[in-house]
Amino acid sequence: MRKPLPPFSDHQFQAGENARLKDAFEQWLQDNSAWFWPKGATYLYPQGLNFQLLADPNNSADGYDRFLSQFFRANVRPTDHYTLSVPNSALYRLKADASGFANLFLCGDWIDFGGNVGYIDGTIQSGQQAAQALRTKMNLGGHKEIWSALKA
Ligand SMILES: Cc1cc2nc3c(=O)[nH]c(=O)nc-3n(C[C@H](O)[C@H](O)[C@H](O)COP(=O)(O)OP(=O)(O)OC[C@H]3O[C@@H](n4cnc5c(N)ncnc54)[C@H](O)[C@@H]3O)c2cc1C
């Protein structure tokens, strides 16, 4: 991605980065695809991919049109970015009940939920902790046994 990010008034930035992504992806496919799918290569691109094999809602006859029908989106917005788990970064994560606002609880794989790795289980744990923080705030007591009905 191009850095530094342009101001929000640059409404062409997303489209420009999408186009750059498309071009880079095309090059990457033609340089590397045969390593993954050796039977998908072509005579012209022995390391690449036969675009005729790509799914296309319009079922275009032309292979490049099939490539163009793929979904390309560059994650350029700051909120699209991944929160990494690099050493000594955990202290910058906030707990579910530590937003600093009385009526705002945090959840997501980016908070301090304990494991502090960006994965689905962490997302779920963070959601449970946010729910618990909300219950505590509302004097609703401890965790509700969400699986009890299934165990009975
Ligand atoms: C390429 C990739 C592969 C992955 N593979 C795995 C895997 O194999 N196993 C695994 O466990 N995890 C995997 N993960 C991680 C997993 O996807 C995330 O941990 C999980 O999706 C995080 O969930 P979340 O709800 O915290 O955030 P998100 O899923 O990112 O949801 C946040 C949502 O908030 C929206 N949003 C942002 N800003 C605003 C705003 N201002 N207003 C309204 N909405 C907003 C976003 O559009 C988004 O929909 C992978 C992640 C990536 C990127």
UniProtKB/TrEMBL annotation:
The protein's name in its UniProt record: FAD-dependent oxidoreductase
Originating organism: Dyadobacter frigoris
